[in-house]
Amino acid sequence: MTTKTAVMSFCRLLIGLALVLPSIVNGYKLRYHDESFTPDVVLRVTESSISRACSTRYSVLINGTAPGPEIRLRQGRTYWIRVYNDMETQNLTMHWHGLSMAASPFSDGSPQASQWPIAPQYFFDYELHPDVGDAGTYFYHSHIGFQAMSASGPLIIEDDDPPYQYDEERIVHLSDLFLKTDEEIETGLTTPPYVWSGETNNVLVNGQGLPLNTGARDGDNECSLATILVEPEKVYRLRFIGATALSFVSLAFQGHNNLSIIEVDGDYTQPLEVDYLQIGPGQRFSVLMRTKRREELEEDRANGINQYFLQIETRERPISVRSYAVLIYPGGSYNVSTAPANPPITLPSTALGWLDYELRPLTPNNFPTLAEVTRRVTVTITQIVNNTMVTFLQNGFPWTESFPPMPYLVALYNEEMSLFPSYESAVNNGGMDNRTRTFPAKLGEVLEIVIQMTGQGNGILNVHPFHAHGSHFYDIGSGNGTYDLVQNEERLKGTEPVRRDTTMLYRYTRSGIAGATLGWRAWRLRVTNAGVWLAHCHILQHMMMGMQTVWVFGDRNDVLRLGYPAVKGYLSYGGEAYGNSSRWPTCVHYWDDDDD
Ligand SMILES: *[C@@H]1O[C@H](CO)[C@@H](O)[C@H](O)[C@H]1NC(C)=O
Ligand SMILES: *[C@@H]1O[C@H](CO)[C@@H](O)[C@H](O)[C@H]1NC(C)=O
Ligand SMILES: *[C@@H]1O[C@H](CO)[C@@H](O)[C@H](O)[C@H]1NC(C)=O
Ligand SMILES: *[C@@H]1O[C@H](CO)[C@@H](O)[C@H](O)[C@H]1NC(C)=O
Ligand SMILES: *[C@@H]1O[C@H](CO)[C@@H](O)[C@H](O)[C@H]1NC(C)=O
Ligand SMILES: *[C@@H]1O[C@H](CO)[C@@H](O)[C@H](O)[C@H]1NC(C)=O
Ligand SMILES: *[C@@H]1O[C@H](CO)[C@@H](O)[C@H](O)[C@H]1NC(C)=O
Ligand SMILES: *[C@@H]1O[C@H](CO)[C@@H](O)[C@H](O)[C@H]1NC(C)=O
Ligand SMILES: [Cu+2]
């Protein structure tokens, strides 16, 4: 052993000993989840063939269906959600999209960052604590490979006393339908030679749809348009969930074009009137819609209008896919077996920067001013195309499910911190510590994060819905070219940025030379939630192609606050925090320390 490694081992030993301390000081409880423990929610994940829009596809299903069952939780309480991986060979995790402030350290469901995946035939107990103020629209989905194309479901945090009045609510969950299997798509994107997934075959509403460009079908549930049943003269809260794998859509209702946005990504907004929505993968919107008066309905029926289409069109892809659902009122006849011969609505082409600088929070949200910003980090996106692969890089590096040999948080514990990012080297290197490929920040910092698009290797640009785990950011807009601090500060005057968790990096030009700066999206973030968090494009294909980053918030004691030995069961694949048919799991109770 050289002197240097001896010194390092000694340091590791000291750090290792220091780590024992927090577990004693903080006293996180370990509990054995045997038959006396009852989870609040149970999800069982399987794989089988399912028919959607008249096509059969082998898919990952939650409780036997896609989308999975709706989960409704309340604010200010702790929940345990048990997720069974009943699949034969595939790994699984479950992510609580938009709720990551509410996830305990190993419960965020990101396989390459916060936890080992749940091995086949094992289960994992996720601990969530939606805080007061989190009421809103979310979804849960697998975070492995392409599974989330089918493995997702609505997650609603209920409000005892919503600030808006409405009679009822309806969920509109949007998903893609690719006909290739997950495995074909994953293999094509991640092993040479690179093969693109192809384009989506359909955009489904609540798992339903008709095949595109074909005639009428038999109208069973698996091959018919989704129905949204409403009554006249009522106000509905429509919760739109962008659970698509790839598709960025525009949508609107026939005959119901007075929509009032009241919530985006889990935060209430001041009402904003729109007549259509643009929704990217990962985004959610609640809108209030007043239904027709009885006289209007009768008039429409006299004119042969018995149903009103929800028309959906994909944007910014080589082909635009158009699909529908129907809004229906009781008493009228309707037909869910036929799409209209001619689209009833002309949806606008992509509005670049849609609602940027316009949405306002319902209540003051502590938006950080420029003076409060402590550091600006630019994440520069490039795309590398070579003979065999297409890869996305952030500041020169990709991050994929297979990049870290261990989930990063697990590695920090297992490797006794030798993998902890160097804050100094990150600060000197534009924000990223390139030894660990992570972006560290100290608690209390206010970051300005700029996602900067550059010309791509094959010349072709895409849109990218960027999603952050761990915290909601304040969205400070987007634009063409290069981010310009002075210009944007000018634009922000008189606006009140909202907090979001997924916003679009638009495409301002279809192609551009490599290296040219061709559009940006910017966020401000108060660094408060210690931990290891992903920020990534929410297009599942792009994630597999490397478009993910990992952020480490807090110092060693903050990030590893659970301490040894409490975390032991989380540190190996199939470890004691994971249960199976012959073993109950042992879990850290991070929030709830009652004994029920
Ligand atoms: C999922 O299915 C299991 C039984 O297989 C059931 O116990 C559970 O309640 C279901 N979950 C939801 C959220 O409906
Ligand atoms: C499941 O995850 C483990 C741990 O990361 C890995 O070794 C294994 O190859 C994965 N299995 C599959 C089928 O991807
Ligand atoms: C649509 O909304 C606007 C603004 O809220 C309102 O003035 C108008 O009367 C509404 N129209 C209908 C048909 O409800
Ligand atoms: C729906 O419309 C199609 C085409 O017009 C027709 O063939 C089918 O019988 C209709 N179904 C119902 C239930 O009315
Ligand atoms: C092509 O890119 C992939 C992914 O970045 C890389 O692993 C591979 O080595 C590259 N091949 C060549 C020939 O450069
Ligand atoms: C990593 O960052 C250092 C500066 O901290 C720089 O000197 C070095 O070239 C970088 N390495 C790569 C591969 O980008
Ligand atoms: C964005 O900037 C590029 C380069 O200047 C230009 O070619 C393109 O037309 C711009 N796009 C829009 C939508 O303004
Ligand atoms: C349950 O997990 C334990 C520990 O990994 C393992 O030894 C046992 O074989 C597993 N049981 C089943 C039925 O898979
Ligand atoms: Cu993307």
UniProtKB/TrEMBL annotation:
Plastocyanin-like domain ranges (all copies): 45-160, 169-293, 423-552
InterPro entries in the record: Cu-oxidase-like_N, Cu-oxidase_2nd, Cu-oxidase_C, Cu-oxidase_fam, Cu_oxidase_Cu_BS, Cupredoxin, MCO_CuRO_3, Multicopper_oxidase_fun
Segment forming the signal sequence: 1-27
Protein's UniProt keywords contain Magnesium: no
Keyword Ligase among record annotations: no
GO MF term set: copper ion binding; oxidoreductase activity
UniProt keyword list: Copper, Ion transport, Iron, Iron transport, Metal-binding, Oxidoreductase, Signal, Transport
One record GO biological process: iron ion transport
Domain of life: Eukaryota
Family note: Belongs to the multicopper oxidase family.
Protein name: L-ascorbate oxidase
Species name: Lipomyces starkeyi NRRL Y-11557
